[in-house]
TrEMBL record:
It comes from the Bacteria. Residues 1-94 form the HTH arsR-type domain. It comes from Cryobacterium flavum. GO terms for molecular function: DNA binding; DNA-binding transcription factor activity. Gene3D superfamilies: Winged helix-like DNA-binding domain superfamily/Winged helix DNA-binding domain (1.10.10.10). This is DNA-binding transcriptional regulator, ArsR family. PANTHER family: TRANSCRIPTIONAL REGULATORY PROTEIN.
Amino acid sequence: MPKYRDELDAVLRALADPTRRAVVERLAKSPAVVSELAAPFSMALPSLMQHLRVLENAGLITSQKHGRVRTMSLRPGALDVLHLWLGEQRTPAAHQADRLGIHMTCTTPKET
């Protein structure tokens, strides 16, 4: 098991929800205030705040409060743990596919 399992689990749980994925996609473009993030969703502001808390607790986003305005940002490197894990999963699969390709090339009858 990877040593970063808890962090990976938190990120995957947070990204399992389509609303939270949409928020991450939006914040990947630039930081945004909460009211701007809420605009595309037909939900009450407290519901969106709950989603933002899940993302923040997973380490995906950060928030800064200036007066009454809260600005949310995607944390730099927030998705690194996911990229690392996916890379680890792809490597064995890629090697298997390479071996299968070599096997198929070596065992395919040649046309005469």
